[in-house]
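Build the 3D complex.
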Amino acid sequence: MSTVLEVAAIRTVLAGQRLHDGVGFKVNKGEVVALIGGSGTGKTVLLRECIGLLRPESGQVRLLGESVWDLPPDGLDALRRRFGVLFQEGALFSSLSVAENVDAPLREHTRLSQALRDEVVDLKIRLAGLPPEAAGKRPAELSGGMKKRAALARALALEPEMLFLDEPTSGLDPISARAFDNLLRTLCDSLGLTALLTTHDLDTLWGMVDRVVVLHGGRVIADGPVAEVARIDHEWIRSYFTAHVAARGTADGNGSGNGIRG
Amino acid sequence: MTEAGPFALDRTATGWTLRLLGDWRLANLAALDAALAGHAWPEAGPLCLDGSALIGLDSAGLMLIHNRLRAAGVAWPAVELSGFDADHLALIRLVTDRLAAPAPTPPARFGFLARLGERVSGAAAELPGMLALLGQISEGLLGLLRRPAGFRMREFFVQLQSVGLGALPIVAMMTFLIGVVFAYLLGIQIEKYGANIFIVDGVSLAIARELSPMLVAVLVAGRSGAAFTAQIGAMKVTEEIDAIATLGLSPIKVLVLPRLLAIVVAMPLLSFFGDLMGVLGAATVAASQLDITLHTFFTRMRDVLPLDTVTYGLSKAPAFAVAIAFIACRNGFAVSRDARSVGERTTATVVTSLMAVILINALYAILNPAL
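Done.
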């Protein structure tokens, strides 16, 4: 199994604070990996460092065979065409319709005719689980879940090999969140995508993620399948998983073992 | 058997076999589409899609095959698949499943008349909102009369500072320079008649009556009107207006009235300041070009510039101010929750308030012909 993303010895200092102190992990082809950690542990920052938006103090990010922070600018642009990003609030261009949003990367990076691009846009909108009629709507007219789907359609426009998702289910109601999880899993499996996502949503972890990377105190304290990570006897991990069970009032029936019951 | 680059169509005992040969991915989509379009399709019959010789396949490539086959009359479920690996089969299942629903009818394109009608009805739809704001402002003002303590004094002074004090340097510069230019051009003409002293009549009348109030209005519309719209519009986008309302405060009282009153107070003051600077600019030119000393200039001005003319010019300023503030606030509240809307509304504020200023100015001229 080939490695798609390899993060090694990342150190980040942000606003005078040491955020990452030697963070490293790998993501293999076809895997869906979740990055978890408390608020302020730098999950989103790490994600931004992986996609070339924020330069770490030191460390290596190898993405799709390229070293992200050693690439010349045009090399980084070429690399960016090979992965898609779903930002937390969707980051749809508010002045464009959904179809124009999805069309934007195609118009910029391919030489397809308008008719052919329209067909591709229609496909991506359908793949993201939006009704085809949503194409003509403005982002302001969409619900939170539909915005995320529209943003996902845009992220899929250039047939990416990898997806980065920042809190894909935040701000969605539990039903929409599960539907979005299922959609992501289906897309990753069917389109052969690799995905790295940050999340606070434990249902996402149990439901669709292959592996969990836990960030705590500037380091990776656990890395493995969720059922294994949940059993690790670490203060933060224990409280993270038990808080969830307590909040729901039921034990999780997903083969999680004793770990989550503390 | 026919060959055409990325695919081959073979006749078999039972029907047809379409063998995919090349790289069916987004990067080649245009070439693939051209190859498919330049190909004669057989009469509809059992079709087998063979992927054993594929180099690559992604959702866009698959969509192309699906849509072109459908256009040729081959409905997807009737297609038999052979030679695809498991990953491609999963992709095919997903894509063909999602594409099964019929395409939406594209929105009809409207002609010129329909677009014109849309614009007109859009403009007409603005009217209720404007009337509502007018009503709310009147209600707020009446409320202030009854309970003056409810006035947001602090916000009023903040606005007065930015609208009035902040505009002083630019008003000074503009009116002074217009005074200089006007006096210079007028001076060239009247010097030919040896009527140098009449420069004072022409310049002081023009500046006090028309130039200064208009220039100040144009400046305030561009400077403060645009700022009002952008501020209120940005607050609308970030839901701050809703927050003000849910805290039991009135957005009219908190945002509109202080701005309205500040601009109404500031504009006559700015106009008067503009009068002074304009005349000063003209007097400078008169002294240096037409041999009219400052003393002569101002003595003559006292004789030929009636106070009525000055007050007439200044009386236009509050009317301009109300129009600018109203249009700016209305556009601010009409911003919808996206980035482009703020820009569109700010532009609309400047354009509309300039038009309003010119109209009001014309109205004043017609109603006061004697001055």
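Residues 249-262 of chain A have pLDDT under 50 and may be disordered.
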